[in-house]
Amino acid sequence: MKITFWGTRGSLPAPLNGAAVRRKLVNALVKAAGLGLDTPEKAEAFCSETLAFAEASTFGGNTSCVQVDTGGQDYLVCDLGSGAREFSMAALARHGPGSPQTYHVLLSHVHWDHIMGFPFFIPAFIPGNRIRIYSCHPRFEWAIRNQSHEPCFPVEFSALSAAIEFVPLEPGTPYEIAGATVTGMAQLHGGDSFGYRIERNGTTLIYTTDAEYKPDDIAQMERTAMFFRDADLVIFDSMYSLAESITLKEDWGHSSNVMGVELCQLARAKALCLFHHEPVNDDARIEAILNETLRFEEITRTGDRLRIHAAHDGLVLEI
Amino acid sequence: MTISEATLGGAIIVSAQGRIDMSNSEDFKDALMAALAGAGAAVIVDMAGVDYISSAGLRSLMIALRSAKAEGKAFGVAALSPLVLEIFTISRFNLVFALYAGVRDAVAALSPDSLGQFDAS
Asked: What pTM did the predictor assign?
């Protein structure tokens, strides 16, 4: 499977502003002083090899949208946050508007940051395209139809030209979708949300966002570890620190990097990807959280090493 | 994990040893709550013998801290090993709990009337 992240922020888009770009530039120029970076190649090498990721790039600001390439012709994507617009533009650039495609969409839930990209999902406007939207959430069809409605949006859902189907799923039941076997799991989140286990040819991806995991709920930990079991990659809501998720933001429906590591270790998963980044956190903060998570994994490791990533818009992972 | 308890005037010192994780965090919480019920002024958790604490153990500490605040009692955590301090820092619990380098520091800060008894013990 190839996983492409088009949107990785939680709750709200968080675009990099001019002041932040300026700070990165100033920092890079100071660090480059005297290094004779007089060709694009030398500058590129400096950015890649000397600067930290957060200094040379950005984690991005789009909300949840993750493309899963299962090897077939159809597209499979998890959630339709603001990252869905860029995903759709990339798909159109690849095929052109005159080449109809089938898009399979798995919706975790219908909070705004997970569906806000659909009104700007260009394939929905093009006749011949087929869009199948799946979810365990009981109101997903209602939410998708009604966000494209006056006075909040000028283009009515009924004006969309693609063939759009809504396919309800039951948690715990495996379904064949886009060449993969997909099983949903109910998660702890206000208004309900659902994680998905996506399997194909012995490779397993877990997509679990907008999910709160309680460290002292042994039944939930064991149930989740079973759902995550032996996964090759777990894309995990790590919006808060553990302390935040247990104190001020308890019952806000999100989890932490520490819980991600503990659950993956319990499930013998191979890799964890921190996801649904807190929009308040800047690039340096997210990179620091990644480094702390790497260290936490190291000091708590009892078996094989768990690989750790922090998702960023544009990240591609092969599993 | 093993737990022992000592009373010093108005303070109770709870000393934990070993690993605190999902398998025993409930016992840890019960010990902390029992100490809180018996303490006049403060509970100090001596972590010198703890080599690992998981999220479940941290939550037990958090529940005890909440109860202490509700009862108007002081609650401190002392003598963290470097590794356990790292876990507190990564999870941000270093910002939640009153942490002390040693048990004596905690007694001096949270129950100064017990300091003489601590030094004599």
From this structure: 0.95
